[in-house]
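Q: Could you predict the 3D structure of Transposon Tn10 TetD protein?
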Amino acid sequence: MEWIQRLNQAVDYIENNLDRVIHVDEAAKIAACSTFHFQRMFSYIAGVTLGDYIRKRRMTLAAFEMLQGGQKVIDIAVKYGYDSPTAFNRAFQAIHGMAPTAAKNEGVSLTVYPRITFTLSIKGDEAMNFRIETKEGFRIAGYALKEPMTMEDCLEKVPVFWQEVAAKGGIEKVCTLVDGTEPQGILGVSTCDNGEFSGYYIAAATKQPCAEGMEEYFVPQGTWAIFDCVGPMPHAIQSLQQRIITEWLPTSGYEYAAAPDIEVYYEGDQSAANYRSQVWLPIVKKQ
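A: Sure. Here are the predicted structure tokens for Transposon Tn10 TetD protein:
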């Protein structure tokens, strides 16, 4: 399938450049999607972030070269993108549990991470309820986390951001902005401008003015696949997002659009088995 082929071609590019500078935007271009969405798709399908995959593959190749001998540690470090032996030693030890020099000893046990190859696996053993809607643009207002972030950064910083906003009473303040504008509820919005991650908002779709400390963002007109989610947070929505990318998207006739990803959280006990939420995936028809 073309979608899977493009992902594997992007992996080819990464593998061919492990000893050079890897430009994520080039890999995304090969995969025919934005940099932000490429990183997101990769992590959901591979089960590991793109940055972590590259680190593990580089440390695998570095270990092989250490075993062969004949090269200085600093030369191998520089080859795989590390400017100092200290940084290389830290990365090597995190993967292999030993210093690079120890890898030269006969009989040592090293950790190998093989190249990833994507294949299409159709499960279909559990239903996904969704609808496709084209929406007029709408304004959101709330609290924003705006800084350059990789997918790894998002996984680490976004949950902390939710905790910080909740701790200062921000969720209650966002709730006061809900005025019937769709989508209703508390929104988690990952914005993507010019193919790059540009911010994460805890917000509401609203026509009301921003309160102090809040920011606004205009979500442009677009088409979304809207999936219903039932189950406790965060596991239920994380599991659904992975299934959307790995099971629904490859055979849907659509692909990721360069528009915001939206999570919709409704009132209720988020730890309950019947808690309801939604995932809005921005899409365009495949050409």
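Q: Anything worth pointing out?
A: The longest strand covers residues 196-205.
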